Amino acid sequence: MKNISYSENITNKIMIEFSRTIQLFGLTSLEARLYAYLFLTNEARTLDEMGEALGKSKTAISTNIRSLLDLNLVTQVWKKGVRKDLYAANNQLFKAFMNFYLNKWIDATYHQKEALEETSKMIEQAKKDGAGNLTEFANLELGMHEILEFHEELEGMFKKMKQD
Amino acid sequence: MKNISYSENITNKIMIEFSRTIQLFGLTSLEARLYAYLFLTNEARTLDEMGEALGKSKTAISTNIRSLLDLNLVTQVWKKGVRKDLYAANNQLFKAFMNFYLNKWIDATYHQKEALEETSKMIEQAKKDGAGNLTEFANLELGMHEILEFHEELEGMFKKMKQD
DNA sequence: TTTTACGTACAGAATAAACTGTACGTAAAA
DNA sequence: TTTTACGTACAGTTTATTCTGTACGTAAAA
Questions:
Q1: Count of structural domains, chain A
Q2: Which residue among B69, B91, B113 closes a domain?
Q3: Among all strands, which nt has the closest C1' to A61 (CA)?
Q4: Residue B54 carries which DSSP code?
Q5: Distance between CA atoms of residues B77 and B80, nearest Å
Q6: Which of A27, A102, A129, B56 has the CB geometry, 3.0–4.6 Å to A31, for a possible disulfide?
Q7: B128 or A40, which is more confident?
Q8: Closest by Cα among B69, B34, B32, B73 to B51
């Protein structure tokens, strides 16, 4: 059995708790643990180091670090003389997470609103063509209207939050 | 091949789009489709009806409707003469979803904050016991402080949102 | 009371997600 | 130029999640 220092033990405990919170933002378990590890040790790390520390394959680290990079939660760091890629946690916790999270929502609601508006046109067309029961269409249009409104409210709310 | 009406086809399209949005709130695919179905058809339904409509087993419907019930997204409806349980979508979209979502976050951040504070005490204790490297502890405490702050900011934000 | 129909617990099957190891293209080191 | 070491694509495996069918307790109907 490996001798694990007291502080390592505590670090572990914190990592587990912290990464649980991060998962609420929609990160997978490994993404979350990776971020927590980088944040807590507060140093730029190589893929190998992270794999070693979390007991995962280099491949797994590579793909998951890439996600974090895309979300701007992690930055690639350059250090002369070091050949391997180095990654560090963006350590402005609140700002970094809010940013990526709000963007995610704004993006998603926007796109879905578009898709729904497209479908809205199909209803119009179908009505013109007389291709079905009229009350059925009326009912559909009503629901559609509420759903679109819902998307607008969501998008509006998140956009407003982004400004603060 | 079953003859599918034009309006049924459109309904399906909307359901798929809408349920995609709902999944952003953390609902599973079936939970989302169930809600979308109930919302769009705008009628109280039995387990059998829903299973039939979505092509899923009664058991699956039962467990998933129960989740929606717990989240207050769906209500059980009573209709005299009808023996089967009836369920209807809570149709105040924005209000219903915001409510359950904010509660989820507030809950989670609160509990994790508590757990982290517990661990904070462990660091104190370890420092007293001289059970490790001092600078290591200082570093840990720094990270811990930022993480706790992060949790407070999150909790505060969501609580504030709830008031509006 | 007996029979029938309902909803759900639970074990196992199907599907999806996460992860590993190998293999390869690329760029730094020799 | 040749050799070495790096990061990632990809196929296959492992693990986790979702779903089904059967079986059972319960309450309404007969």
A1: 2
A2: B91
A3: C19
A4: H
A5: 10
A6: A27
A7: A40
A8: B34
Residue-wise pLDDT for B44-57, tens only, equals 999 999 999 999 99
**Domain identity same for B114 and B137:** yes
First to last CA, chain B: 51
Whole-number Å distance between alpha carbons of B45 and B29: 19
Give B98-136 pLDDT, tens digit per residue.
999 999 999 999 999 999 999 999 988 888 887 777 888
Nearest-Cα residue of chain B relative to residue A136: B7
Distance CA B10, CA B15 (A): 8
CA B151 vs CA B86, B110, B114: distances in Å: 40, 8, 10
Taking the CB of residue A149, how many other CB atoms lie within 10 A of it? 12
Pull the structure tokens for residue A41. Answer: 């040790």
- Across the range B72-100, mean pLDDT stands at 97
Distance from C-alpha of B73 to C-alpha of B68, rounded to nearest angstrom: 5
Same domain, A139 and A100: yes
- Among partner residues B40, B42, B94, which is closest to A150 by beta-carbon distance? B94
Residue B68 — very low, low, confident or very high, per pLDDT cuts 50/70/90? Answer: very high
Q: Which two tokens stand for residue A104?
A: 């995610």
Among candidates A11, A20, A151 on the partner chain, residue whose Cβ is nearest the Cβ of B140: A11
Look up the domain containing B80 and give its range. 6-91
Instruction: Return the residue matching tokens 């998008």.
Output: A155
Indicate if B59 and B121 belong to the same structural domain.
Answer: no
Residue A33, nucleotide of least CA–C1' distance: C18
Are both B57 and B111 inside the same structural domain? no
Residue B14 and residue A143 in contact, taking contact as beta carbons nearer than 8 Å:
yes
Closest CA to C17 C1' — which residue? A28
